[in-house]
Write a structure and sequence with these properties.
Helices cover 59% and strands 5% of the residues. The mean pLDDT is 80. Helix 1 runs parallel beside helix 3 (83-101) and helix 2 runs antiparallel to helix 3. A two-stranded antiparallel sheet has the order 1-2. It has a domain at 56-149. By secondary structure, the chain is mainly alpha-helical.
């Protein structure tokens, strides 16, 4: 038999179902945790896939969208995103698209390479597209979709 007579201590944050919950109830901490986890997924595929000159950029884009972005945006349908969070996620995203295309930030400035042109080369969309699609595929009765549609 289990004794349940103890007390539960206070914790500032804990992970529940893969999402980081913080006592402030802010999603900033979960967004930060996702931004820390996504580079691990990217690095795991970097040498064999993203760093290879033999693999077409379109295929790299599909692998990135299906694998790395899934890690980055896990649980995003429950986030209450601020403009700052969207900016942080978007910056992380476009830096990885540049790495997939093997284009440095210096080259983007000198040659005036736009983010849109890199996204077109890889077949990857802007981050806002992925954030919106997570909600768009939900059933109409789910709370995040009802909030977006109301």
């Amino acid at each position: 038999m289990l004794d349940c007579g103890g007390t539960v201590g206070f914790t500032e944050s804990f992970v529940y179902l893969g999402s980081l919950l913080h006592y402030s109830l802010s999603d900033q901490h979960d967004v930060g945790a996702r931004i820390k986890k996504a580079p691990q997924a990217f690095s795991a595929m970097r040498s064999k896939i993203f760093g290879s000159a033999d693999i077409p950029e379109r295929l790299k884009g599909k692998v990135y969208a299906g694998g790395v972005l899934a890690v980055l945006l896990y649980g995003c349908e429950s986030w209450c995103l601020t403009a700052e969070s969207v900016r942080r996620l978007g910056n992380w995203h476009i830096k990885r698209v540049r790495k997939i295309c093997r284009v440095t930030i210096y080259q983007t400035f000198v040659n005036r390479i736009t983010s849109e042109s890199l996204q077109k080369r890889t077949g990857v969309f802007a981050l806002e597209h992925y954030l919106a699609s997570h909600v768009a595929w939900m059933h109409k009765n789910r709370l995040p979709k009802r909030l977006v549609l109301s």
